[in-house]
Structures are given as C-alpha cells and as structure tokens.
Specification:
Order of helices and strands of chain A: EHEEHEEEHEEEHEHHHHHHHHHHHHHH
Structural class of chain B: alpha/beta
CATH superfamily of chain B: P-loop containing nucleotide triphosphate hydrolases
Organism (chain A): Aestuariispira insulae
Radius of gyration of chain B: 17 Å
Structural class of chain A: alpha+beta
Number of domains of chain B: 1
Distance between the termini of chain A: 64 Å
CATH topology of the largest domain in chain A: Hypothetical Protein Pfu-838710-001
CATH superfamily of the largest domain in chain A: Hypothetical Protein Pfu-838710-001
Number of strands of chain A: 10
Oligomer: heterodimer
Protein name (chain A): CHAD domain-containing protein
Strand content of chain A: 15-25%
Domain CHAD (chain A): 217-511
CATH architecture of chain B: 3-Layer(aba) Sandwich
Shape of chain A: globular
Number of helices of chain B: 13
InterPro entries (chain A): CHAD_dom, CHAD_dom_sf
Largest sheet of chain A: 10 strands, antiparallel
Strand order of the largest sheet of chain B: 3-4-2-5-1-6-7
Helix content of chain B: 40-55%
Pfam families (chain A): CHAD
Distance between the termini of chain B: 11 Å
Largest interface: A-B, 20 and 22 residues
Number of strands of chain B: 7
C-alpha cells in the first residue's frame, strides 16, 4: 500500500499558486488552506527505532492527533493511527500495526521526546472529472526545535508528491512538468534527520553495548584507562534517566557499567594499576553498586509481573494485586535511595576523583609491573587464564554437586565474558563473536538457575514483610506461595539444561578456538 | 488479515453505505483496508469516485489471469484501497460455478501481506458467488431493517449456511435505517436485541447525512464527521473489530 513519494526543493518564494498553474493541464488542482502541524519525534534513549531505520512521530493539528511510524530511508509513512502518547511505553499503542512494529524494537524502554518539527503545510490534490484524487501534493515549510523549546531553525521549503495507487500516469505527467521547473531531491534525507542535525543532536550517540576500540600496540595501562573512561561515561550518561526513573533500563545500564568497572579492576588491572588505587576503587564501586541493588530487584519483579501472574492458575491471579501494590511502593522507596546516591557528595567525589586519576592523576602515581606490556599480550594471558578456570570449575560439577558450585561458576563465567568484551576489538570479530555467543547461551542457564533460587527466597521474604506490615491478606500469601513454588519448579529444568549446555561449550571446536586466539605460543 | 462481508440477500437495507462507512472507519483506525466492490451496480465504486471498470473483467479474475494487485485503486483516504466493480461481475456466478468452492479464498491470499482487512461489498442475491464469499470470510455482517420481513431473511441465510456446510464463519447482525420515531422500529429492536444471537447493539439511524453520500460521494465520516450516523458507524466498527480479534 506504500507509495514512493518524490520531493522537490523549492525556494522560500515559491507558492501553491505557482504549482497549481504549472499542473493545470494534468487535472483539476484543488488547494486547501494552509495548516500548521507540530510533529513531535520520539525514540528511546539508545535510539532503537533509529537503529532500525524508523522514526515515530506524533503529528498534531488543532485537536487532531495521529501517531505515525516513518521509514528513514525512503522518507515515507509506514503506518499511522489516531492518538497520542500517554506514557511512552509500548502499551500506548493498543493493538495493531504500530504496536507490532514498535514493541519488539523498544521492548521495555520508554520513548522520549527527541525533536519537534513545526510544519506549515498546504495540501493540494489533483483530481479527474469525477472529482477523484489522482495524486496529492504537500507544500511544506519546516522548522526544527528542541522538544519544548521556542528557538526554531528553518529546514527549508519542499514540495512532496504522493502518487495514488492505480493512477500512475497522472503522477508521471506531473513529475515531468515539475522536473522542468524544480530541482528534484534525489537523496532526500528524512526531515527528522535534518532536524536533528540542526539542533545538534547525533542519533545513535548512546548504545548499551560496550563500544571500545583498542589497538594492539597500546600499553596495558593505556588500555585500562580507556576501558575505565568508557565505562565511566556510561555510568554518568545513565544518571539522569535513573534519577528520573524514565525506564528501568537506565539503572540496568548504570549497574552493568559499575559491574564491568569492578570486573576490570580485578581481572584487567592487577599488575597494571597500583594496588592501592585498585583497592580503593573496588571499595568505592562496590559501595555504589550496593545502593542500587534493591531498586533493580524491584524493577525486575515489576517488569516480570505479567509473567509472575501467568505462572499460577487464573483463578488466583487477582489475589496478587496487593503484592504488586507492595512492590510498587517499595520500588518508590528504593528509587528514592538511588536518587539520594546520585545526588550525594560522596558519589560525586568518587566519580570525579576516578576520572581525574584516569586522565592525569596517574602520571604522578606509581605503576604496576605489567603497565607497559602490550595490551594484546595482557589480554591473551588474562582471557586464557579465565577460560581455564571456567573449564576446571565446570568440569568438576556433577549431578550431586551443591548449588554453590554452580553459583561460583556463574561468577567465573561473568568474568570471562567481560574480559572477552573488553578486548573484543583486538581479535577477528567473527571468531571472538562466536565464542562470546557460545558463552552467553551457557551463561543463560546458569543465570536461570541462580535467579530461580534467589527469586523464590525473595518472594517468601517479601511475603513475610507484607504480613508484618499487615498488607497481605491470607489469599495473597497463598498465591505468593504458588508463585515461589512455580519458580522453584523451573530450577530442576535449569540444572538439567546445565549439563547439556556445558557439553556444548566444551566441544573441541570451542576449545580449539580459545587456544588459537588466546594461548600464547611462548 | 481478516475478511468481512457485508451481505444481505434483500436489497435496499443500507448494505453499500455500511460497506463504505465501515471500511472508512477501519482505515481511519489504522488498519490497511481493501474494499472489493463485488456488486455489478458499482455503487461503492461510485461513492469513492472510481470508475466501475476492471481490466479483463470478472472472467480473467476468476481464472487467475489478472493480478489483483494491478487492479487495485487508491481511494482518497489513507489506508483505504478499492478493487472496483465491473459490469461483467453480473456473470460471476457462472464463472465461479466451474471452480472449486475455495476459489475466491485462494484469489485473495496473496493480499495478506499488504492488508489487515478486506471488506466484500456483496450483491443482494443468494448464489454460487455468495457461498464463495462466505467461505473466504471470517465474519458475515448482515444489515437489517427493523421490520418483520427483514428479520425473516436472516433465517434463510442461516439455513443456507447450514445446507452449504459453511463452518467457522461468524454471523453478526445489526439494524440500519432505524427511525427512532417509529414505534414499530423501537419494538422490533427491543424484542430482537433480547434474543438475537450475534446481534450488535449499535444501530445506524435513518438520516439525511447517509442519503447525502450520493451527492458528496464520500463516507459520512469524511464530510459530516460529527453527525449521528458518522458516530454510529464508528461505534459499529468498534464493536465489530472487538469481535474480530
């Protein structure tokens, strides 16, 4: 149903009347009065729609509001529905095409205002003798502004021709006439992209993936500083969204960066940074991480709530409502704790001191014995060591091993995973990518095993807390018991899956790849 | 993709007005909609100002020699396309008689990717074509006048579905051209609503705006969006859409 539009660059002085005169021979030109539109563009903090070549905008004219999904490559509207955004989450779209397009991309993230375009649009239609529209024309003069800002910047005037299906001849005739008088914009970028340029916003400027580029000739110390500075940037960039509780992913990314920092301190920095610096930073980041544990746990329960509800019989689900209310109120308190953390002098000092050390302070301090080692050498040996540890711990686990052994293995795997990710750019992308993927699927089972245990215990504890606070009717407690049980049921499955996945990770092929990439030949 | 048919073997019950206005409402709600004007009289095509003419006619379509894609015309409304009527459709019965029962269903299969909803505006008869349409549809929507005679035809439709062994088709009825001042209309509606299975409560009033469609050549929602019939069609679509899921 989509139709390829064609657009022309016009001068500020060109009017609808000029166009109407030009196309008088094609059909009856009908010109509506000029209307003003406000187009508010949205994307997630990490630009998920942009990454998929899409943009979402709410187009408003007087009291009419439509939600549209546009393609950035072809500058066309892919889907539209009446409405406006209420929360910015996928639920806003009800059911239908827009939700289908958007939900799988944004997942749990919230759409945030990115750009306002103010368009003055004169809609024109060229009709046949029956009054049927043969094609449409929009004469648009567009200005860009930061969301909510009054300062506007002109984007120019353009004429967009929209053919109508089944009436190609008329549109072609018009294009031939327009081509003689105006410049066709062959590589027209979507106004959204041009507008972002004008307000100096770079789409895709944040990604939750670790984007690090290390060079093999760097010293271990240089690499360590770069890793830490990149992680520090991620921590700071997620502060605002975490403090404002925009969506749960801000805190998640914030915590991952903290955890990666801590992992780098113990895995990468040993022998590279002075022991005292490492020890202090470890304590500092551990403290920061701890302050955010409660909020993350509660975020996870709330995000999983539909699943939690779905895990028990339908007739008991409503009894979980007080549980949800309790989680929401606890999440509010935990969020306040995180807000206090981010606003605290201690937190700010830790981050500032750390940045100062990484950028200049280190020059005055001592160095570790491996500081001048080429980073590739360091990476080889650290990854190889961590990999051997994973294999040793994993190989020792049998059917009867205590749960602690699986928990320890999970942590060792995480360390290996972070090392692989830190040093990824030093190795052929395809080969290291395969290993990360293999490790990831193995980690998933370990994660599930751990989560089932922690979560079922946590639900029992939450039940006790609620009872003490007199917020849990008996039916709610019973329903929560069912939830805890259904979670525990999954644990056996995860344990069985462990052996299958570990075998898959222990194949000669994976072993040989690790050897080839990381084992030193010396 | 869902397929609905607007049908009544009796003429003059507001069938075409229903097809045009429901399609318009569906398109407005964001569904990519195609309306197929199967009635050789071509009233739906007229309302959308599209010539009631199809290259190659009904014969080529039934034989599968026309690509439906090339016959579709964009209407003046977003998300709404039309497959026009053609005078040759008067022979569609004969054409389909030589084919398998599922011929029409097969013909529209390739359109699945492009459309969320197909609406058949059906000619007022009961025939080979009707059963092809029923087999291709998810829902059969029967507009009725609030008169005894009109309600009687419903039994005949039910009987036809039974005899032709057409299963899995949702049958939905509603009243159109309702005159609230007529006591008889009111009584019949009340009585029917109480016992009618699959009956949708939204009524379409008898109103000049609907008659004006012939002059405006547009759905009422377009030229008289705040009038009672426009709002009723919107409500009717909302209820139908709920049942389609």
């Amino acid at each position: 149903m989509s139709r390829e539009t064609v657009s022309y660059q016009l001068a500020d002085t060109d009017t609808a009347l000029d166009i109407a005169k030009l196309l008088a021979g094609v059909g009856k030109v009908e010109t509506a009065s000029e209307r003003s539109f406000k187009l508010s563009y949205y994307d997630t903090f990490d630009w998920r729609l942009f990454d998929a070549g899409k943009a979402l905008c709410v187009s408003q004219h007087e009291d009419q509001s439509d939600i549209q999904v546009e393609s950035l490559n072809a500058d066309e509207i892919l889907a539209s529905m009446p409405g406006r955004l209420k929360t910015g989450f996928a639920d806003d779209f009800g059911s239908g095409r827009i939700r289908d397009m958007v939900e799988e991309l944004i997942d749990v993230r919230r759409l945030m205002a990115r750009l306002d375009l103010h368009a003055l649009r004169t809609a024109m239609a060229v009709r046949d003798k029956e009054g049927k529209a043969l094609f449409r024309l929009n004469l648009e003069s567009i200005e860009a502004a930061k969301p909510g800002s009054r300062a506007r910047k002109a984007l120019g005037v353009r004429l967009v021709l929209e053919p109508i299906r089944g009436y190609a001849k008329a549109a072609e005739k018009a294009m031939a006439l327009l081509d003689d008088s105006y410049q066709r914009k062959t590589e027209d970028r979507a106004p959204f992209l041009k507008g972002l340029d004008l307000i100096k916003v770079t789409p895709g400027d944040y990604s939750s993936k670790l984007k690090l580029h290390l060079e093999p000739h760097m010293t271990a110390q240089q690499a360590s500083h770069l890793v830490h500075l990149t992680l520090l940037d991620t921590i700071e960039r997620n502060e605002e969204g975490t403090a404002a509780n925009i969506d749960a992913e801000f805190l998640h990314d914030f915590r991952v960066a903290i955890r990666r920092t801590r992992s780098a301190l113990s895995q990468l920095d040993k022998g590279v940074l002075p022991p005292k610096v490492i020890a202090k930073a470890k304590d500092d980041f551990k403290w920061i991480g701890q302050q955010t544990n409660d909020m993350r746990d509660l975020d996870v329960y709330l995000l999983d709530f539909p699943k939690i509800q779905g895990s028990i019989s339908e007739s008991y689900r409503d009894y979980l409502t007080p549980f949800k209310d309790y989680l929401v109120s606890k999440q509010g308190k935990a969020h306040a704790q995180v807000q206090r953390l981010i606003g605290s002098a201690r937190y700010r000092k830790i981050l500032n001191d750390w940045r100062h050390y990484l950028t200049e302070g280190h020059q005055k301090s001592s160095r570790g014995e491996d500081a001048e080692l080429p980073v590739k050498e360091l990476a080889d040996s650290r990854i190889w060591k961590a990999y051997r540890k994973v294999m040793k711990e994993g190989g020792a686990i049998d059917e009867d091993s205590p749960a602690e052994m699986l928990h320890d293995l999970r942590i060792t795997c995480k360390k290996l995973r972070y090392l692989l990710e830190f040093f990824q750019s030093l190795y052929p992308a395809g080969e290291i990518g395969k290993l990360i993927k293999a490790l990831k699927s193995f980690q998933n089972v370990l994660g599930e095993f751990q989560d089932t245990e922690v979560q079922s215990n946590a639900i029992l504890q939450l039940g006790r807390d609620m009872a003490e606070a007199k917020k849990a009717p008996v039916e709610t407690q019973m329903a929560m018991g069912m939830v805890a049980d259904s979670i525990l049921q999954k644990q056996g499955g995860a344990r069985r899956a462990f052996h299958v996945r570990f075998d898959a990770f222990s194949t000669d092929e994976v072993k040989d790849s690790f050897k080839k990439l990381f084992k030193s030949r010396g | 993709m869902k397929v609905i048919s607007i049908y009544n073997m009796k003429g003059g019950v507001g069938k075409t007005a229903t097809a045009v206005n429901l399609s318009y409402q569906a398109a407005q709600s964001g569904l990519r909609t195609l309306i197929w004007d199967l009635d050789p009289q071509g009233a739906t095509s007229f309302y959308f100002r599209v010539k009631p003419k199809v290259k190659g006619g009904g014969k080529k379509i039934v034989k599968g020699k026309s690509d439906l894609d090339d016959l579709i015309k964009g209407t003046d409304y977003t998300n709404l396309d039309l497959l026009p009527a053609d005078f040759s459709y008067r022979d569609l019965d004969l054409r389909f008689a030589d084919e398998k029962d599922s011929r029409l269903k097969k013909l529209i299969t390739p359109l699945k990717k492009e459309y969320d909803l197909i609406v058949f505006d059906c000619p007022p008869s009961i025939s080979e074509l009707s059963q092809q349409i029923f087999r291709a549809s998810d829902m059969l929507i029967v507009p009725m006048l609030p008169t005894t005679l009109s309600i009687r035809t419903l039994d005949q439709i039910r009987l036809f579905l039974k005899e032709e062994k057409i299963k899995g088709l949702k049958l939905r009825t509603f009243f159109s051209m309702v005159d609230r001042r007529k006591k008889m209309h009111k009584d019949i509606i009340e009585e029917f609503a109480a016992k009618g299975k699959g009956h949708i409560e939204a009524n379409i009033p008898y109103a000049s705006a609907v008659e004006k469609m012939g002059i405006e050549r547009a759905p009422v929602g377009d030229f008289a969006p705040r009038t009672a019939p426009a709002l009723s069609y919107r409500e009717l679509w909302r209820e139908i859409n709920k049942e389609l899921d």
